[in-house]
Specification:
The chain has 313 residues and is α/β, with parallel strands linked by helices. 52% of the residues lie in helices and 12% in strands.
């Protein structure tokens, strides 16, 4: 046995059973990476296609979320919205996860939800005698598959130390952002920057086209000047300059437009609840809402450039 394999076995045995609830495009690969590292994982997802994919990746499946969580030391959720998380914790028409698990279970939520919802979920877990960590991710499906995600973590220091070895098997950068809800706060701020910057980069390329610049010329200047940003140098919205960007495969995500629209709505909620006098964030939210209302929902968010180009004279 290699040294790394031995360490994985030690980590898995010390952590105990991990219930992984939500095995979609992100959750499935994340759970698979935990399995590969030697962790004891049991999964659940109500969607048959997700179950089929999870089984193909060697993830044992439970017949219900309650069954998966009952004996778990860690309950990891990767769910579509804050309502799904809160309903799972409290229960709808029956007992919730908080009432069927063992005492002092650690609830690790990797969903992207409202900051206030994350804090409410943490308060519910703590009141029920458990521990809570919010750890939303950045890096998309490619990062989930490669185990290179960034985790933004909101947790008490001792709980952060507990989950850090688990998160390190699914990501390459783990940042402790503060107490409960701080992970979601960091995620919403980061993705507001990302949404605004992608629109700016896309508008600049369309302007460059109108002015007679080649894509490569603009890229060569901006990527080495003050316009440099992730939306340009990693997820460039035009084909050519960055061969790995979604623009080179007809904007297949990646990070889908529907997800960017969702994250910007979360940013808008946070801006409204805190009274921040923001203008670019709300504008980006409206632009991506319109993009996601059509075919853009299933395209990479960098495909916003096609909307800008189509609306230009």
């Amino acid at each position: 046995m290699t040294e790394n394999a031995a360490m994985s076995d030690i980590q898995g045995s010390e952590t105990g059973l991990i219930a992984f609830l939500g095995l979609g495009h992100m959750g499935g690969p994340m759970a698979a990476n935990l399995i590969k590292a030697g962790h004891d994982v049991i999964g659940y997802d109500p969607v048959p296609a997700a179950v089929e994919a999870a089984v193909a990746h060697g993830i044992p499946m439970a017949s219900s979320a309650h069954e998966a969580a009952a004996e778990a030391a860690v309950v990891l959720t990767m769910l579509p919205s804050g309502k799904h998380v809160l309903d799972a914790y409290r229960g709808v028409g029956g007992p919730g996860l908080l009432s069927v698990v063992k005492p002092d279970t650690l609830f690790l939520d990797c969903s992207t939800i409202n900051v206030d919802e994350a804090r409410e979920a943490a308060a519910l877990a703590v009141a029920a005698g458990h521990r809570s960590v919010d750890a939303p991710v950045s890096g998309g499906v490619v990062g989930a598959e490669a185990g290179t995600l960034t985790f933004m973590v909101g947790a008490l220091p001792e709980d952060f130390e507990t989950v850090k070895p688990i998160l390190e098997l699914m990501g390459k950068r783990i940042v402790h952002c503060g107490d409960h809800g701080a992970g979601q706060a960091a995620k919403v701020c980061n993705n507001m920057i990302l949404g605004v910057s992608m629109i700016a980069v896309a508008e600049a390329f369309v302007l460059g086209e109108k002015l007679g610049l080649t894509h490569q010329a603009l890229f060569d200047v901006a990527s080495n000047a003050s316009g440099q940003c992730w939306a340009l140098t990693t997820n460039c919205p035009v084909p050519g300059p960055v061969p790995t960007s979604p623009a080179n495969r007809d904007y297949q995500p990646g990070f889908a437009g529907a997800l960017m629209a969702k994250d910007l709505r979360l940013a808008l909620n946070a801006l409204e609840s805190t009274g921040v006098a923001a203008e670019m964030g709300p504008l980006a939210s409206r632009i991506y809402d319109a993009f996601a209302a059509g075919e853009g929902a299933g395209r990479d968010f960098s495909g916003i450039i096609t909307e800008i180009r189509d609306k230009s004279v």
